Amino acid sequence: MNFIKQLVHIKHGIRAAKNSSCKAASLCLFRSLYHSSVEVNSEEQEVVIALGSNVGDRLNNFEDALNRMKKAGILISRHGCLYETEPAYVTDQPHFLNSAVRATTKLEPHKLLETLKEIERDLGRTAGIRYGPRPIDLDILFYGSQTVNTDTLVIPHERIWERPFVMGPLIDLLGTDPDNDTTKSWHLLSRNSGGIFEAWQKLGGESLIGKDGMKRVLPVGNRLWNWSTRASVMGILNVTPDSFSDGGEFISVGSAVSRVRSMVTEGADIIDLGAQSTRPMAAKLSPEQELDRLIPVLEAVINMPEMEGKLISVDTFYSQVALEAIKKGAHLINDVSAGQLDSNMHNVIAGLKIPYIAMHMRGDPSTMQNDENLVYDDVCKDVGSELYTRVRDAELAGVPAWRMILDPGIGFSKSTKHNLDILAGLPGVRSEIGRKSLALSRAPLLIGPSRKRFLGEICGQTDAARRDAATVACVTAGVLGGADIVRVHNVGVNRDALRICDAMLQRRRKF
Q: InterPro entries from the xrefs (predicted)?
């Protein structure tokens, strides 16, 4: 019997179902694993390694450690979310960054330990107070399905189950559906009939996240963004002659700067610059043409005093444009194709170490509304599954889950009914992604319904500029359903809608 199938979802976490026969089988297998403390041969094994840092540039310490692990033959396959946490045990020290990764390696357990300790030393860790400050801390949580119990190494790590800052990232590395026999063995080694999920719930589970002691963060610019405190507004600035709503209005640098100033005054958190229209059947520009439109406006916007503390996103599906935009000072890339239209995009994003907005779309803007691209069995499940495949490709290219932002692509390869189903079913999109990766399912979720054609079809508004009221309704439904960022043309009215949504959600959490 597959005991994981007895588990049921609770929000983004999981509650173990009670099943006595399942428990007995789990404990029996656990005992057989626990007493097999052996060194394995140099066959490739899947491992879980926890990371922590609270000295120096914490994020750079993580990235440096991951690069060194790769060079040592420890190949990263999955990343947890990124957490900022209060120190444990020794509390008079700076806050930690924590995460965990899954990887494959041929290094035997003690050789793996030796390699990780060498990386720690190379990054400046020295002997000091136990549980005290450190530039990097690398712990082996699991090694295949094996247990090890020697004077220098214990696997599973003996203090996993008491540490929320370890358990949170560990849970992220799993899906609600176990992906192989090795992950099943990790569940059994937790000594809980409901596996690691039950162990996490015993600590407090998702109720721990967002409190002062432990929060999920996304690194962007020079800060760590806790996106869960309130919904964020992304203001749209199209420097194009042919966008469906505001094409031609903000082509000049002066008009673009004026528009940005207005959106920031109205409460925009992010400005999304686009120099190529992605409306259905839009003419496709070359990267050079797109850059010619984009760069003068981007340079002007970056230098605006009003942009202090704000973020700049660039809407492009070209890796060349992404590279140049980030060099000029943009903070993140918004890719409507999630890497489908430029095979080098994921590698470039990985190298730039920036947040990546990956959107669901089938085909390209010229084909996305073709009949074959509008066929879904269950649009929320299908979009979740296809979007997972795209971001999984990005993760394998080196873009960690903690830098991802997901967009289900309202209006792209969707009919009116599909768009409505997605707006009403955002938890279903997350749940489908979570079947394979809880980390990716917990990424910030962005929706972009603003002024789109399906709103005009429903409301009888042929003029896109007259669809703001309908947009507010969609934004409200989306945020109450779990969206974290809304991409809109009219910032002011949608900012007010989000204030109401945030107030409602705060009240909901109290009950």
A: DHP_synth-like, DHP_synth_dom, Dihydropteroate_synth-like_sf, Hppk, Hppk_sf, Pterin-binding_dom
Q: Which residues have a catalytic role annotated?
A: 452, 487
Other C-beta atoms closer than 10 Å to the C-beta of 212 total 7
Superfamily in which the 230-510 domain is placed by CATH: Dihydropteroate synthase-like (3.20.20.20)
- The helix/strand/coil state of 438 is helix
The secondary structure of residue 170, as a DSSP letter, is H
Q: Which two tokens stand for residue 450?
A: 């603003």
271-288: average pLDDT: 87
Nearest-angstrom CA–CA distance, 134 and 138: 10
With a CB cutoff of 8 Å and minimum separation 6, the contacts of 488 are: 233, 234, 235, 236, 448, 450, 471, 475, 494
Exposed e or buried b per residue across 217-250, where buried means at least 16 C-beta atoms within 10 angstroms of its C-beta: bbbbbeebbebbebbbbbbbbbbbeebbbbbebb
Task: Fold for 37-187+200-217, please state it.
Answer: Alpha-Beta Plaits (3.30.70)
Distance CA 429, CA 423 (A): 10
- pLDDT value, residue 126: 87
Out of 156-160, 276-280, 361-365, 468-472, least confident range: 276-280
| C-alpha span between 360 and 313 (Å, rounded) | 18
- Please give the model's pTM, rounded to 2 decimal places: 0.90
Q: Which two tokens stand for residue 371?
A: 């009949």
The CA distance from 223 to 272, in Å, is: 19
Strand partners, 10: 13
Quote the DSSP letter at residue 274.
Answer: E
The pLDDT tens digits of the residues spanning 434-466 come to 999 999 999 999 999 999 999 999 999 999 999
